[in-house]
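Hello,

Our lab assistant flagged a job as stuck in the queue for most of the afternoon. It eventually completed. Since we weren't sure the result was trustworthy after the delay, we are filing this so someone can double-check. Below is the sequence as submitted and the structure that was eventually returned. Let us know if re-running is recommended.
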Amino acid sequence: MLNQMILVGRVANLEVNYEGKAILMLAVPRSFKNAYGEFETDILKCRLYGAIATNTKEYCRNGNIVGVKGRLQSGDGSMIAIAEKVTFLSSKPNNSEESND
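-- returned structure --
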């Protein structure tokens, strides 16, 4: 049996705690239009650990496009993606109004 998934979307939010764990909220647009002719976007929760969490925190900002390879895990009645690899696909252009962190 195989449990593998690939997601490509924009970083909506990234929360990292002190233990090297992170929750990445990924905005993934659907590939079809709804009844009103609009593309809807799903916000999916991905859990990151260790070096993957650290590197993603260091190099990604909200709006960046990333690819996440991993597996799905169920618990507490919901599904969550567990990231095994995060690939940085593109970055959001820097605005002069944004400050450097």
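-- support follow-up --
The delay was a queue issue, not a problem with the job. The result is valid. The first strand starts at residue 5 and ends at 16. The chain has a mean pLDDT of 88.
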